[in-house]
Amino acid sequence: GGATQGKDGNLYPPTFVPSQANTQPRVNAGFIVLVRNEELEDMKSSMRQVEYRFNRKYGYPWIFLNDQPFTDEFKDGVRKVTRSEVRFGQVPHEHWSYPSWISEDKAAETRERMKNVVYGSSESYRHMCRWNSGFFFRHNLTLDLDYYWRVEPGIKLYCDVDYDPFAFMQLNNKTYGFTITAREFRETVPTLWQTTKAFMDEHPEHVAERNIMQFLTATEGGDDWNTCHFWSNFEIGDLNFFRSKAYLDFFDYLDKQGGFFYERWGDAPVHTIAASLLQDKCKVHHFDDIGYKHSSWDHCPANGAYHDSGRCDCNPSQSFDRHSWSCLNLWWASSDEGYPSYAVP
Ligand code: GDP
Ligand code: MN
C-alpha cells in the first residue's frame, strides 16, 4: 500500500490516499443505470469498460432502471457482461409523470418554444432529468445502498481504477465525486439561479456556512451563476446526501417552480448547486485519476507520473479540461482540494 510519489514530488492521487480504501470492507454500493432497451449494445460496451478497469476485482452490483419494462434480450445481454449481482427495476409511474401542479399545456408550449435548444423539444428528456434530480435515490432497488456510481451507455474509462472509490468516499467523508465540470447552456436554465436564491432566503438553515458558492459565481463579477456544473453522467456519490432533508426540501422547492417542464433544467446543475451550497465544501471530490469519456468530452489525467505508470489509454493534452468550456480551473481555484502540483498557476 501507500500512495505513489510522482516525479513531481506529488503524492498521487493528490489529496488523499486511495490505496487505504483497499484495506476497507466492501461498501453498500452499486452502479445505478437508467437506460432504454434499445441502448443494449452501448450499455454492454460501458459495462465492459467498468468491469475491465475496476469491477471484476470488486464485484459491486449493477442496478438497471427504466421507465419501460426491460426486455429479456436486454436482461440476458447485460447479465453476460458481469459476474456481479444484477437487478432490474421499473421506475414507478409517479416518478415519471406530471405532478398535479404542472400544466401540461404550458409544458407543451415550452417544448415548442425551445425547439432550437438541445433536447428542448423532448418530453422524455425532461422526465429523465427530473427523475435523476429527485428519484434515483428512492427507488426500491436502491434503498439498501449507501453509495452509487452512475453509469450511462457508451462511456469509456481510460485508466485502471486500482482502488475502491466507494470506500475512498466513505473513508474520507465525501458525498459527491465528479470527473468533468463544464458550463451549461443558459437557455435550459434561465430561472434556476433565481429560484435557488429564493430557496436560500427561505431556508437559511440548509445553506452550509463553508459552502462553495465561489465555484458557482466567480468570473461573473457579482453573485450571478456562471453555469459551471459537475457533469452528472459520471457521478460517485453518497445516496444519503440526496435523501437528506436539505436536499429533499431543495428538490421539492425546484419541482414546485416547474422548471423541469417549463424550462429544461438538467439534473447536473441541480446536483451541483445542491452539493455546492447545502454542505461543507470538503464534501466534494474531483476524481482526477479516473479517465473518463462521454460523447465528445473527456477527462484524461494530466499528472505526469500517473500517466507514465501506464494505467491510462488517453492523451492528457487533448483532455476537455483544457477547453474554454471546462470549469476545472475554477474548481481548483475554489475548492478545498486546490490545485494539484502539476497545475499550480
Ligand atoms: P445526454 O447524456 O444528456 O445526451 O442524455 P442521454 O440520452 O444519454 O440520457 C441520459 C441517461 O438517461 C442515459 O443513461 C440514458 O440511457 C437515460 N435515458 C434518457 N432518456 C431515457 C428514457 O426516456 N428512458 C430511459 N429508460 N432512459 C433514458
Ligand atoms: Mn449521455
UniProtKB/TrEMBL annotation:
UniProt region (Disordered), positions on chain: 1-22
Name the GO terms of the biological process aspect.
Answer: cell wall mannoprotein biosynthetic process; protein N-linked glycosylation
UniProt keywords, alphabetically: Membrane, Transferase, Transmembrane, Transmembrane helix
For this record, an example GO cellular component is:
membrane
Q: In the record, what terms sit under GO molecular function?
A: alpha-1,2-mannosyltransferase activity
Q: Which family does the entry's similarity section mention?
A: Belongs to the glycosyltransferase 15 family.
Specify the protein name.
Glycosyl transferase
Upper lineage ranks? Eukaryota, Fungi, Dikarya, Basidiomycota, Ustilaginomycotina
Question: Which part of the entire protein is covered?
Answer: 106 to 450 of 450
